[in-house]
Amino acid sequence: MIDHLPILQVVVPLLGAPLCILVRNPRAVGLFALLVSTVTLLISCTLLQQVLLNGTLVYALGGWAAPWGIEYRIDYLNSYLLLLVSAMGAIVLVASQSSIGGELPRNRHMLFYTAYLLCLTGLLGILCTGDAFNVFVFLEISSLSSYTLISLGNDRRALTASYQYLIMGTIGATFIIIGVGLMYMMTGTLNMYDLAQRLPEVHNSKTVLSAIGFFIVGVCLKLALFPLHLWLPNAYAFAPSIATAFLAATSTKVAIYVLIRFIFSVVGPVFANTVLPLQEIFVVLGVSGIFATSISAIYQLNIKRLFAYSSVAQIGYMILALAIGTPLGLTATLLHLFNHALMKAALFLAIGGVVYRVGSAQLSHFAGLGRQMPWTMAAIVAGGLSLIGVPLTVGFVSKWYLVLALLENGWWPLTILVLISSLLAVIYVWRIVEWVYFSSPRIMIDEVKDPPLGQLVPIYVLVIANFYLGIDTSLTVGVSKKAAEMLFGGVF
Amino acid sequence: METLIDIVLLGFLVLTALAVAKMHDLFAVVMLSGIYSLLSASLFLDLDAVDVAFTEASVGAGISTLLMLASLKLVGRFEKRTRYRPMLALGVVLATGTLLIYGTLDMPHFGSAEAPVHQHVAPRYLNDSMEEVGVPNVVTSVLASYRGYDTLGETLVVFTAAIGVISLLRVSRRTKEEEKQKTPADMQQQIILRVVVKWLLPLILIFALYVQFHGDYGPGGGFQAGVIFAAGIILYTMLFGLNNASRVFQPEHLERIAALGVLLYAGVGIGCMVLGGNFLDYNGLSHDPVHGQHLGILLVELGVGLTVASVMITIFFKFTWRTVKHKYVKKR
Predict the structure, then answer these.
(1) DSSP of B49-78
(2) pLDDT tens track for A355-394
(3) Chain B residue with minimum CA distance to A175
(4) What ipTM describes this predicted complex?
(5) Is B70 exposed, middle or buried (0-12, 13-18, 19+ CB in 10 A)?
(6) SS3 A226
(7) CA B70 to CA A2: how far, in whole Å?
(8) What's the whole-number average pLDDT of chain A?
(9) Contact between A226 and A316 (Cβ < 8 Å)
(10) For chain A, give me the number of helices (H) and strands (E)?
(11) Looking at residue B179, what is its pLDDT?
(12) Pairing state between β A71-74 and A57-60
């Protein structure tokens, strides 16, 4: 059984999605999806434990050895992300049991949960696989289902947002497949580790160069790197809150994983930097992204949009840390990837609680909610503190490693910029605090109170994780360091 | 001679693409995109990639043209005039084109036997597939066995697309009353077409089954069979109306069949695991590995066919119901 865990990780939600159609009953479908995602989470915990004990796990699909068949390869890097994605998938589904009723009519619940499990399947499939074309197939599954999840939002503008994302996402996916196709043409293989061995022979060819270019631009569209992030704010703002919480915590993270995997395990960091000025590009785009989108966040009137812009800014930090090009920098990227998921999941779930009670995510509707929804607002403040990077929160841990990595390289001007940018986060979080605690309530009705426990519990599980993992960093820092060392050591 | 044919076909492709970009009549654009697919299919045929050509012809030129026409009924025939001049988009397209052309400079020569794709994994597929998988059509053995997991993923993509379309067309479930409402097809009056279709329909469906089960030996398989089957049903729906068609294919059952197709495919994989092999390792399905491969491929192709056919019919029904509803049901 243990041997089959790598494939079960993906096949369990894969079977769960079509089964949702057969279950059909709205209430039962929610519980069923929760059951599926819980099993998925348990599998990912066991996988991480197995990888930490025994090293990389390889699984040949169909019994065909790579490169003839497709193989799954679970190492430190993807087992760490598998845990993140499946944990977020399960926690968000706990909250959805009560929150979904507020945002979707009953006859759409089945479709929502089916699309949700499909998205989970797609993301987990991208993480597990060691085959470049297989990445594309599961990327399509996760993308198509995210467009669906976003379009299910109550607001009509959700449709435009989803359409925008569809166009941008399809361009991204097309670029990725062009990249994979050109690499296949030059090497005759699709397996990532086989590619890593065969690419050096054809390094100097213009075809490989354009393949790398297409692939990286495609992935950067998917991960919403500034200035390719234009699809993201509307998508996050108009999607159902549950979908926003799930997508914000997982989908861009998985795209960053693909970028890291491609640069380190397929092309090799040295080569990637010699043929393309990747380091310079990433530093410039990362830093300008952090500032441009943090400033945009300050001016937002819708709190979901506000945090969406802040998400793009956080991606800037991850890309900046990646650009440093040292094991410590990569550790910082991986840490922030995990920690940012914890913050944003907590924040968007809490906002989901507000939407459930108040029916809107406009900042002005948050006026005076501090008294009416004390627990939810406390969670938003806690998430905000973590976003700023206050000590004892996870946000502090990842910023700390980022600063350490920058200083290790002597990049102190960038260090100062990173610290200044944190002040921008203080401003936008403060704007929320001001509305919530220092304005008088818009309407005084008793119905506006904290959401039901079914939502508060998952929110607080995440808030506590934000603090617990900010103090006891052995899991996140430990695994990130191992993953970074593995990638730099070139040992698969 | 072949080179000449290739050049002519490629030239037509470019012309068609330019015409599509230039036109504002969406009906013509859809027709041209069908032609584009047919031209690509011919090109693939000329390159001896019969399976790809077949798929392109049935999916690209066939079903997707039909579905686009169905959606034109909803959105109208002419593109709205915009003042927006997409210079940025043009810039991106030019940059992409330049990079693509730059990439061709170092490509292996066209048709060269020395090309890496012919040197590395392909020889085993070509030489050993008959022994290992026992299917004469190598494309099928790669698609359904060596890289069978990708095909499972593709089937799931089709299924996901259906979920997307169903949830996008926010059509509430039809009430009992609405179901009774007569909704004649637009082409109800076309007697000649009706007679021809009545004769043609069984042939189309039998051809679909042939393509489904003959995929091991010649070009074909679940994807093509699924769309051909769906095309037959769609043709029937266009001439005899949604009422008649959905009496056989009830929308809810179609959704279930689409789900069952995916479950069948993945279920075969799980079955292989239960029997002691890896996921989708068909060898264990029977005492004789090659026999197991045959059985496995047959079953997964059936899963693909079921999902593809029911998804395509579902999508067409959703579009049609939407138009029909505007025309007949709302009038009361």
Answers:
(1) -HHHHHHIIIIIIIIHHHHHHHHHHHH-SB
(2) 988 888 888 888 888 888 899 999 999 999 999 999 999 9
(3) B96
(4) 0.94
(5) buried
(6) coil
(7) 49
(8) 91
(9) yes
(10) 20, 2
(11) 64
(12) antiparallel
In this complex, the residue of B259, B270, B273 whose CB is nearest that of residue A22 is: B259
Concatenating the DSSP letter of every residue in B133-170 gives T--S-HHHHIIIIITHHHHHHHHHHHHHHHHHHHHHS-
pLDDT at residue A100 is higher than 90:
no
Among A121, A185, A187, A216, which would you mutate to test the B interface (most chain B Cβ atoms within 10 Å of its Cβ)?
A185
Of A15, A107, A205, the CB nearest to B106: A205
- Mind listing the pLDDT tens digit for each residue in A40-49? 999 999 999 9
Nearest to B150 among A63, A134, A189 (CB): A134
For residue A58, the cross-strand partners are A73
Which amino acid, residue A81?
L
**What b-and-e string marks burial along A220-246, b requiring 16 or more CB atoms within 10 Å of the CB?**
bbbbbbbebbebbbbbbbbbbbbbbbb
Find the CB nearest A137 among B99, B157, B255: B157
Token representation of residue A284? 């410039």
Residue written as tokens 């929760």?
Answer: A34
What value does the mean pLDDT take over residues B277-297? 90
Alpha-helical (H) ranges within chain B are 2-22, 26-46, 50-55, 64-75, 87-104, 116-119, 122-132, 138-141, 148-168, 176-180, 191-214, 222-248, 251-274, 289-324
User: What 3-state class would DSSP assign to A74?
Assistant: strand
| Amino acid at position B275, single letter | L
Give the distance from CA A127 to its chain's centroid: 12
- Residue A317 in contact with residue A254, Cβ under 8 Å? no
Whole-structure pTM value: 0.94
Contact A183, A195 (CB under 8 A): yes
Interface contact B280, partner A, CB < 8 A: yes
Report whether B145 contacts B133 (CB < 8 A).
yes
pLDDT, chain B, mean: 88
If one counts every other C-beta atom within 10 angstroms of the C-beta of residue B150, the result is 22
pLDDT at A445: 66
For chain A, say whether B256 makes contact (Cβ under 8 Å): yes
In this prediction, residue A314 carries a pLDDT of 94
How many angstroms separate the CA of residue A358 from the nearest CA in chain B?
Answer: 25
Q: Is residue A342 classed as helix, strand or coil in its secondary structure?
A: helix
CB contact under 8 A, A188 and B115: yes
B104 in contact with chain A, both atoms CB, cutoff 8 A: yes
% residues pLDDT > 90 (chain B)? 50
Domain spans in chain B, listed from the N-terminal domain onward: 135-332
Is the model's pLDDT at A12 over the cut of 50?
Answer: yes
Quote the tokens at residue B113. Answer: 């036997």
Reported as a pLDDT band with limits 50, 70 and 90, residue B181 is low
Q: A415 in helix, strand or coil?
A: helix
Cβ of A206 and B255 within 8 Å?
no
| Nearest partner of A258 among A148, A162, A144, A131, judged by Cα | A131
Provide the CA B320 distance to its chain's centre, in angstroms: 19
Beta carbons within 8 Å of A279's beta carbon, 6+ residues apart: A273, A323, A325
Chain segment B57-69, per-residue pLDDT in tens: 999 898 999 889 8
- Residue A84: band (very low, low, confident or very high) from pLDDT cuts 50, 70, 90: very high
- φ/ψ of A436, rounded to 5, equals -75, -45
Contact indicator for B44, B289 with CB cutoff of 8 Å:
no
What are the angstrom distances between the C-alpha of A378 and each of A58, A353, A374, A456, A472?
44, 12, 6, 11, 22
Q: Which residues of A touch B166 (CB under 8 A)?
A: 111
CB A9 within 8 A of CB A82: yes
Which residue is closest to A19 within chain B, CA to CA? B259
